[in-house]
Amino acid sequence: MLKIGDFSKLSRISIRMLRHYDEIGLLQPRMTDPSSGYRYYSEEQLRLAGRIQALKDMDFSLAAIIEILKN
């Protein structure tokens, strides 16, 4: 498991955006520590983060990205 800071560095997505993605259901952490609320991500989620970034680079909105990834 990767801490949010490590995942942020590897995925090149800011911690602030990772928190936002969690709130909107786009990229949710694999696990959240119930006592601290700290978010942990799996290495497998890096591929999804890359897909999200690629779609953002193509100027898709976050709402559109959510729909694309559902299908």
The level of helicity is 55-70%
In DSSP terms (H or I, runs of 4 or more residues), the helix count works out at 4
Tell me the span between the first and last alpha carbons.
Answer: 27 Å
- Summed over residues and divided by their number, the pLDDT gives a mean of 96
Could you give the order of strands across the largest sheet?
1-3-2
The number of E-state strands comes to 3
Structure description:
The chain has a three-stranded antiparallel β-sheet, with helices on one face. The longest helix is centred in the last third of the chain and has 13 residues, at 45-57. It has a single domain (2-70), classed as Orthogonal Bundle (Multidrug-efflux Transporter Regulator, Chain: A, Domain 2), CATH 1.10.1660.10. The chain has 71 residues and is mainly α. It has helices at residues 4-11, 15-24, 45-57, 62-70; strands at residues 2-3, 31-32, 39-41. Helices cover 56% and strands 10% of the residues. It is globular, with a radius of gyration of 12 Å. It contains four helices and three strands; from the N terminus they run E-H-H-E-E-H-H.
What's the short version?
The protein is mostly helical and 71 residues long. It is 56% helix and 10% strand.
